[in-house]
Amino acid sequence: MRKLRIGITCYPTVGGSGVLATELGKKLAERGHEIHFITSSVPFRLNKIYPNVFFHEVEVNNYSVFQYPPYDIALASKMADVIKEKQLDVIHVHYAIPHAVCAVLAREMCGENIGIVTTLHGTDISVLGQDSTMAPAIKYGIEKSDIVTAVSDALKQQTYDLIGTTKEIETVYNFVDESVFKPIDTGNLKEQFGIREDERVLIHVSNFRKIKNLPDVVRTFFKVREKMPAKLLLVGDGPEKHRVLDSIQTSPFKDDVLFLGKQENVAELFGISDLKLLLSENESFGLVLLEALACGVPGIGTNVGGIPEVVSHGENGFVVELGDTDAAAQYAIELLQDEEKLIQFRQAAISTVQTKFLAKPIIDHYEQLYERLVALR
Ligand code: GMT
């Protein structure tokens, strides 16, 4: 395949869509493509120098007349600059708002016939798609993109239901970097956290937003803790953190909940974990679940959005109804008390990634989409 010049726009701070976009860019660069990130800051997983990867910062003018700094216009202008100067073949935007609309505007501005790929990630549809001030712009961005992908069948269906578009949407699942997310020897890390060998470790990783339903994670853990020695690792940070902290203060098990804040090396934390909990109110995919599975950690997730496409009930984890912490705890207890079953689930977790979410075929798929667009130019 010929080498392409690909622009990528995403939210560069912590979040699944930014992670996926960055990992995709890195993998495409390894294949020899020239990758141009056009973002407001360096994407957080772009943490070293990668050959073929370039970063173009979007700077927003804070002129006093602006009540709100016009990020969208600055992004579109920067995209138009980079498209022209670097002669991009394709621009791939992650998250519909404002990125898809900015890409369309940039194409108009620079007058180049560039292909636009938009990947829908979740809240751009499930939350913003319900907002009448946003829905028309999302629909416009989707319909003016040349190719639209969604990270799960559930999200694709939700887009049709909420946005009312007839645009063809292809499901392209998320993937993880298997060289990072794999079972690893963590030495005495468990001990360093003060966790005894006989204690089971449950883990939750997220941006601590309301949609992640932290109260149910803690409730489930406490029910498990009543039956066995265990610790809960809460990894990440966000608006719900203090509410959760307050809510556990009266529990006799409060010292068994460890708040670790934002962490870079999540794979190591999965390395000391036995079970991942993701009990979200909505989740288009649940990239962190996939990261856990790749590390050999089974997951319990809610029966919402794309989670059942990632977690196979009774094989690599369990799917429970939203709010049913009794069921979540019961499944957790049964699994964590049965070493043989846990080993079986750990193996199934790894093979799910190998069979359904391997990076290579998914990146091949994106490459084919780009190639399709380039052939049309
Ligand atoms: O919910 C988040 O953690 C952030 C959000 C984002 O846009 O980064 O995540 C969405 O995209 C991820 C990557 O495709 C998915 O794995 C998440 O499930 C999705 N979040 C929601 O749908 C709530």
From TrEMBL:
Transmembrane segments: none annotated. One of its GO terms (biological process) is bacillithiol biosynthetic process. One of its GO terms (molecular function) is glycosyltransferase activity. Residues 188-350 form the Glycosyl transferase family domain. Residues 14-178 form the Glycosyltransferase subfamily 4-like N-terminal domain. It comes from the Bacteria. This is N-acetyl-alpha-D-glucosaminyl L-malate synthase BshA. The lineage of its organism: Bacteria, Bacillati, Bacillota, Bacilli, Bacillales. The gene is bshA.
